[in-house]
Automatic annotation (TrEMBL):
<feature type="binding site">
    <location>
        <position position="151"/>
    </location>
    <ligand>
        <name>(2S)-2-hydroxy-3-oxobutyl phosphate</name>
    </ligand>
</feature>
<feature type="compositionally biased region" description="Polar residues">
    <location>
        <begin position="1"/>
        <end position="15"/>
    </location>
</feature>
<comment type="pathway">
    <text>Cofactor biosynthesis; riboflavin biosynthesis; riboflavin from 2-hydroxy-3-oxobutyl phosphate and 5-amino-6-(D-ribitylamino)uracil: step 1/2.</text>
</comment>
<feature type="binding site">
    <location>
        <begin position="104"/>
        <end position="106"/>
    </location>
    <ligand>
        <name>5-amino-6-(D-ribitylamino)uracil</name>
    </ligand>
</feature>
<dbReference type="InterPro" id="IPR034964">
    <property type="entry name" value="LS"/>
</dbReference>
<dbReference type="InterPro" id="IPR036467">
    <property type="entry name" value="LS/RS_sf"/>
</dbReference>
<feature type="binding site">
    <location>
        <begin position="80"/>
        <end position="82"/>
    </location>
    <ligand>
        <name>5-amino-6-(D-ribitylamino)uracil</name>
    </ligand>
</feature>
<feature type="binding site">
    <location>
        <position position="46"/>
    </location>
    <ligand>
        <name>5-amino-6-(D-ribitylamino)uracil</name>
    </ligand>
</feature>
<feature type="region of interest" description="Disordered">
    <location>
        <begin position="1"/>
        <end position="33"/>
    </location>
</feature>
<dbReference type="GO" id="GO:0009349">
    <property type="term" value="C:riboflavin synthase complex"/>
</dbReference>
<protein>
    <recommendedName>
        <fullName>6,7-dimethyl-8-ribityllumazine synthase</fullName>
        <ecNumber>2.5.1.78</ecNumber>
    </recommendedName>
</protein>
<keyword id="KW-0808">Transferase</keyword>
<keyword id="KW-0686">Riboflavin biosynthesis</keyword>
<dbReference type="InterPro" id="IPR002180">
    <property type="entry name" value="LS/RS"/>
</dbReference>
<dbReference type="GO" id="GO:0005829">
    <property type="term" value="C:cytosol"/>
</dbReference>
<feature type="active site" description="Proton donor">
    <location>
        <position position="112"/>
    </location>
</feature>
<dbReference type="GO" id="GO:0009231">
    <property type="term" value="P:riboflavin biosynthetic process"/>
</dbReference>
Length: 189
């Protein structure tokens, strides 16, 4: 009997405890803004089904970073080439603390896609420097883009990732500028 009790104690000690339930990682805590922010999101309609994934992901992420969706105004233009003029006019209104551009530039038409993409990016930088309103770009130009469903699906996912990244860059820059402007106003910088 004693031997049975000892064996049973050994057996129960060898039984592994059930694995602990692992809690999901906590939702990241993002800093809040001192003043309300308003963002313009300018999107090209060329390949809308791809580019809209950037907008959708951007809106989700920017809201997680304490900028309400209602404070993001959406604008659609025919193609990426038209984005800089819209960005400039929107920046000049002084209504927006940031402008985000999204578009897909592919081969075709009378312009080479590298020329268009380079022109758009340079023009957006000029808008930002002239107006002091930060402008963010999710205007992408893949080396090769085919209308196949596999390619379209790949770029839809890629644009969703870019939407998250551009929201992060936008929110972090706005926070940084808010701090810097406060320091300048206080005579610290």
């Amino acid at each position: 009997m004693n031997q049975m009790l000892q064996e049973s104690e050994v057996n129960s000690s060898q039984v592994k405890a059930a694995p602990e339930t692992i809690d999901p990682p906590p939702t990241p805590s993002h800093p809040r803004f001192a003043k309300p922010q308003r963002v313009a999101f300018v999107q090209s309609s060329w390949h809308r089904e791809v580019v809209e994934q950037c907008r959708i992901a951007f809106l989700d992420e920017i809201e997680a970073r304490h900028i309400d969706r209602a404070r993001v105004d959406l604008f659609e233009v025919p193609g990426s080439f038209e984005i800089p003029l819209h960005a400039q006019l929107l920046a000049k209104t002084r209504r927006y603390t940031a402008i985000v551009a999204a578009g897909l530039v592919v081969d075709g038409g009378i312009y080479r896609h590298e020329f268009v993409a380079d022109t758009v990016i340079k023009a957006l930088m000029d808008v930002q420097l002239r107006t002091e309103v930060p402008v963010f770009s999710a205007v992408l130009t893949p080396q090769q883009f085919h209308e196949s469903s596999a390619h379209v699906e790949f770029f839809r996912k890629h644009f969703a990732t870019k939407g998250i990244e551009v929201a992060e860059a936008c929110a972090n820059t706005l926070l940084s500028l808010e701090r810097l402007r406060g320091q300048v106003a206080a005579g610290i910088v």
